[in-house]
Structures are given as structure tokens and as C-alpha cells.
Amino acid sequence: MPTLATDIEVLARFGRALADPIRCRILLALCEAPAHPADLADALEVSRTRLSNHLTCLRDCGLVVAVPVGRRIRYELADERLGHALDDLRAAVVAVATDTTCPDAETKGCC
Q1: Taking each helix axis from N to C terminus, what angle separates 37-44 and 48-60, rounded to the nearest 10 degrees?
Q2: May I ask the CATH architecture of the domain 13-95?
Q3: Burial of 76 (0-12, 13-18, 19+ CB in 10 A)
Q4: Is the pLDDT reported for residue 74 higher than 70?
């Protein structure tokens, strides 16, 4: 059990980032490969403005980074271990219960 306030804050920040389905979709897409915002918006079928807001949240949470590539910006996971953590978390949740839903699934929020 975490005892340091920073451990708890980090987990809470990660949880808030995952609390929105669009942010989850962005993270899963970036697990596959880095991407430019326009490409992400098209792939996820969300407006560029909405995507931008979610990318800002994920960047502020420290989960993604913006990498300049020429005159464009490409987004990628801040650390490759995040991809492994997302895979492990997804597998663990599925292993525990596949027929339940979270009562707070509609809760919105940002980091």
C-alpha cells in the first residue's frame, strides 16, 4: 500500500486521465505508435478541438509528450512503460470481472 503522498497523487492523476473514454482511446492509440493530432482526430473520429483539449490534459498529467517534428507536433507516450502498464491494467480488470460496470463511469474530469 502506498504510503507516500506522491505515490497516491501519481495514481490519482493516472486514474483521472483514464476516467474519460476519449483519453483512454488516445492512450491506446499512442501505445500502437506516435501520432500527429490531425491523424489522431481522424482515427478517433473526434473534432480537433476536442482532441486538443484531451491531449493537453494528458500532457499536463505527464502521460504524453509533444515532440516537434519539423513544423508539426507529434504526440507519444511519455514513457514506454505506460504502454505496458495500460496492457497490464486492462488484462487485470478483464481477469477480475468482465460482467460489471463502474457506477461512476459517467464522471468527467481532468488532471
Answers
A1: 110
A2: Orthogonal Bundle (1.10)
A3: middle
A4: yes
Whole-number Cα distances in Å, 37 to 40, 55, 88, 89, 103 = 5, 8, 26, 25, 31
Report the mean per-residue pLDDT for the chain: 87
Instruction: Please state which of the ranges 49-53, 61-65, 70-74, 96-100 shows the lowest mean pLDDT.
Output: 96-100
In the chain, what are the domain boundaries? 13-95
Residues 6+ apart with CB under 8 A from 59: 65, 66, 75
C-alpha cell at 57: 490534459
Q: Report phi then psi at 97, rounded to 5.
A: -160, 125
Model confidence at 19: pLDDT above 70: yes
Q: What is the mean pLDDT of residues 13-18?
A: 90
Pairing of strands 64-69, 72-77: antiparallel
Q: What is the pTM of this model?
A: 0.80
Helix (H, G, I), strand (E, B) or coil at 69: strand
